[in-house]
Design a protein that fits this description.
The chain has 670 residues and is an alpha/beta fold. The chain has 3 domains: 298 residues, 3-Layer(aba) Sandwich (Aminopeptidase); 228 residues, Glucose Oxidase, domain 1, CATH 3.50.30.30; 91 residues. The chain is 29% helix and 17% strand. It contains 15 helices and 21 strands. The longest helix is centred in the last third of the chain and has 27 residues. The two termini are 25 Å apart.
Length: 670
């Protein structure tokens, strides 16, 4: 079976007319009427209006004013579509100050001269309106730790951190921090409910090999517009070509400094100088969001920071203001909403999960809710008795809270399983519409291209083929179909799964099929930068991404979701990602026997013949101990046992008439 085969025997999915071809110049990307509307998808002008409205509300930080307006908008839209909406509140203390471009809450005077400040360090306590006046001291990350001042010398001072430039990332010139982490941590993610952070969840798919630092594009399953990726795979992407990799490095570089240097030292306040031009740094956000700490922190670009670094090197005085406040019982909640399908409320009901985070700093970073809304409008227009499956929407609000999800034991899919019990597949949607930016000298500007869109998934050959088809059918520019669990088309590690937590729910709910559709965000839209709806995000690109997502949602709605499940990846034989090497077999004849049986399993899955699948799995389990090493046979038996459960489910669903739904009206044309 060829890698690119679809699933013959399953019904033809609903398809979307591709947006007209042509180069995606910046003018076209940003125009509300540059492209015809694909059938079944929200018009560009409606998307532009949504983006403009959301942009006017400012950051959607949990329980803040912008978040409340956004959540109110989403609730109103979902209820108008006939959805059942459930809010799940949790206790939360909101830390806040003024937001870019309003800098009244934060300022810096260095040696008597006011300095332009790019942003504040979130969750970093407060100086009050008067601020802190103290001598500065330089803490240069570009020199070894024994050449920096000891932590004891930082007490009571304003510590000025010189971050390492992007050019050192992934090279021997990148200096280790060299400071051990404190043995105990007393700071809180959600005071007064202080607790040790939960263990971070791993991405939903394991990474093949060691991909190294995030400074370049890696391998892939498929890549559209491949000529628009101007650097070779694994070759560091220059900031003059694209700023995403540099921005990601600089936004996150301060986090270990906070926990290992600033907090233990007793510093009065701190300033970090990033290797970024002014427009790139404006509204910078630390992510993952640090747990709350009490060292008021400001963030500077390299232009404004040059004077401050010089002043700090000679111990000059500075006054730093970060006037922040806290709101207890701020009214945080998450939302689960259901659009009923034809079998809603019956034992035959099945649902597709659409998940995203609804909180964040910017129009690109936190617009996943609008992406979901484009799909909901399409399916709500189909009469309920003709909708193949229900849709369950999960809007998470913990992605940008202090300490992020690790600070909160609350987890809706685990705590409220009754709301998710019918899920049989899903999509995670994030960061739609972002434009690619580059930096030349201190000029930060769009390149005229779309930021990269990633479609991450599991190494199921049928699912991979569907993702590639959606990219091509919708002519999605600069898109990468990535499956990190196996080598890419060039035999090398694939692009790692970034922010995979929202697809993790499909793993936790039982290993259901789906994918994570995400535009790259640090290039144009990670910062709290406003207004940005017409300068850093494109409604036309958003529409293309939404059309691609809708095509993949239609696959889950109408095709055999059992055949698309990750479990069948274990039966890909003799190809990229085969989990059994030659030394797993006792002889070549045995390897051939097992390979043939694995191929027969996939052929039968492709045809939806689950009774044949069960028979083939039994043969495989009988032959494996005879021709494989004991360890390999045990591993293969485990895969076969898991797969048998899925095949038996397929047999049962066929008998119940719920494995694929015939006669679905084709509101979305191919």
């Amino acid at each position: 079976m060829a890698q690119g085969e679809g699933i013959p025997g399953a019904m033809t999915p609903l398809r979307i007319i591709g947006v007209s071809a042509g180069a995606l110049a910046l003018a076209a990307l940003g125009s509300a009427d540059a492209q015809p509307t694909p059938a079944g998808i929200v018009p560009v002008q409606v998307i532009q209006n949504w983006l403009d409205q959301k942009d006017s509300w400012g950051p959607a930080y949990t329980a803040g004013p912008g978040w409340k307006k956004f959540m109110g908008f989403m609730h109103g839209e979902m209820k108008a579509l006939g959805m059942k909406v459930t809010d799940l509140p949790y206790r939360y203390v909101r830390w806040y100050t003024t937001e870019f471009p309003d800098k009244n809450g934060w300022s810096l005077i260095s040696d008597g001269v006011p300095v332009e400040v790019a942003s504040y360090g979130t969750q970093s306590g407060s100086t009050g309106p008067i601020g802190v006046t103290a001598p500065m001291i330089l803490y240069d990350l570009n020199v070894p730790v024994d050449q920096r001042p000891p932590l004891s010398a930082l007490a009571g001072k304003i510590v000025v951190i010189k971050q390492q430039p992007y050019e050192t990332l992934g090279t021997p010139r990148r200096i280790p921090l060299g400071v051990p982490a404190p043995r105990a941590s007393t700071f809180c993610g959600n005071p007064p409910l202080c607790r040790a952070p939960a263990t971070a969840e791993q991405p939903p798919s394991p990474q093949w090999g060691n991909v190294g630092p995030q400074d370049s594009y890696k391998d892939y399953e498929y890549r559209s517009d491949t000529n628009d990726f101007q650097t070779a795979l694994f070759e560091k992407t220059p900031v003059t070509v694209e700023a995403s990799f540099r921005n990601r490095d600089q936004f996150g570089q301060i986090r270990p400094i906070i926990t290992d240097v600033l907090m233990p030292s007793g510093a009065a306040a701190a300033v970090t100088v990033m290797d970024m031009s002014p427009l790139a740094a404006g509204g910078t956000r630390i992510h993952p969001t640090p747990r709350q700490f009490n060292v008021p922190l400001l963030m500077l670009d390299r232009v404004a920071g040059a004077k401050v670094l010089r002043d700090a090197a000679t111990g000059k005085m500075a006054t730093l203001v970060l006037d922040a406040h806290e709101e207890e019982n701020a009214g945080a909640y998450e939302t689960v909403a259901t659009l009923p399908g034809r079998n809603y409320g019956t034992p035959k009901d099945q649902a597709i999960l659409l998940a995203t985070h609804i909180d964040g700093p910017s129009i690109v970073e936190d617009d996943g809710g609008l992406a979901i809304l484009t799909l909901l409008r399409h399916y709500a227009a189909i009469p309920q008795d003709q909708r193949p499956k229900s849709i369950i929407v999960y809007l998470e609000s913990r992605h940008f809270v202090p300490g992020t999800e690790a600070s909160y034991p609350f987890d809706a899919p685990k705590d409220h399983p009754e709301l998710f019990k019918t899920v049989v597949g899903g999509l995670a949607l994030e960061h739609f519409g972002g434009l690619q930016f580059a930096e030349n000298g201190d000029v930060y500007a769009p390149t005229g291209k779309a930021a990269t869109t990633y479609i991450w998934g599991w190494p199921n050959p049928f699912a991979i083929a569907e993702a590639t088809a959606a990219i091509n059918d919708q002519q999605l520019p600069r898109a990468i179909n990535a499956v990190p669990a196996r080598p890419g088309v060039n035999g090398k590690p694939q692009q790692p799964w970034l922010g995979g937590g929202f697809s993790r729910y499909l793993v936790d709910l039982g290993g259901w099929p789906g994918c994570h559709i995400s535009g790259d965000w640090p290039s144009a839209g990670f910062q709290a930068y406003y207004p940005a709806a017409k300068t850093r995000v494109s409604a036309a690109l958003f529409q293309k991404q939404a059309a691609t997502a809708l095509q993949l949602a239609d696959v889950l709605m109408t095709k055999d979701v059992i055949a698309l499940a990750p479990v069948w990846a274990h039966f890909v034989a003799g190809e990229r990602g085969d989990e059994f090497t030659d030394d797993a077999y006792l002889n070549a004849e045995g390897e051939k026997t097992i390979a043939n049986e694995r191929r027969e399993i996939l052929r039968s899955v492709r045809d939806g013949s689950y009774d044949r699948v069960i028979t083939a799995l039994r043969s495989l389990q009988a032959d494996a101990p005879r021709v494989m090493t004991p360890a390999a046979a045990e591993k293969m038996n485990g895969f076969a046992t898991e797969a048998t459960t899925w095949a038996e489910r397929g047999v049962a669903w066929k008998q119940q008439g719920i494995l694929g739904v015939p006669d679905v009206p084709s509101r979305v044309a191919r």
